[in-house]
Amino acid sequence: MKHRIFGKKLGRNHNERKALFNSLTKAMFINGSINTTQARATAIISTIEKLSNTIITKPDIIARRELFKVLQNQTWVNNVVKTFKETFGQQSSNFTKITKVRRRFGDDALIVKISFVKPVKFEINKIVVKPETKRDNKKIKKETK
After folding, report:
1. Contact assessment for residue 117 and residue 95, using Cβ atoms and an 8 Å cutoff
2. In 3D, which of 77, 48, 73 has the Cα closest to residue 62?
3. Alpha carbon of 54 to those of 18, 40, 57, 63: distances in Å?
4. What is d(CA 48, CA 15) in angstroms, rounded to the nearest whole number?
5. What dihedral do alpha carbons 83, 86, 89, 95 form, nearest 10°?
6. What DSSP state is assigned to residue 117?
7. What DSSP string describes 9-63?
8. Which of 13-17, 54-58, 134-138 is least confident?
9. pTM for the complete prediction?
10. Which of 43, 80, 130, 139 makes the best surface tag, with the fewest CB within 10 Å?
């Protein structure tokens, strides 16, 4: 009997499953849509809906902290909250949709596209800082002499 058992295991232990859900949710909020298998999509849809509802209904600091648990970057959190509130306004449910894409060749798994109902474009600035190396410093010293 399957009493009090909720959710799919997806062939993973607790920590692997938690990491998979976090990475899929993070990709969804950064890109706006992702392609994945139907089993994974149905497993994370409730997490995405809850986070989306939290962003819209709760005060700012609570929503930002909940979203920071997944995104782990404050600039991404700020951009997601700002654009999400502009796009969805007072909507309280049905933020996502699932559309069938194709069957995967190897194992015939159904690949679906999970996306937000309204087109959402998150503007996330990626800053790449190149660390200085000793070789770069030597070139600069030679040029100054």
Report:
1. yes
2. 77
3. 20, 22, 5, 6
4. 19
5. -40
6. S
7. -TT--HHHHHHHHHHHHHHHHHHSEEEEEHHHHHHHHHHHHHHHHHHHHS-HHHH
8. 134-138
9. 0.76
10. 130
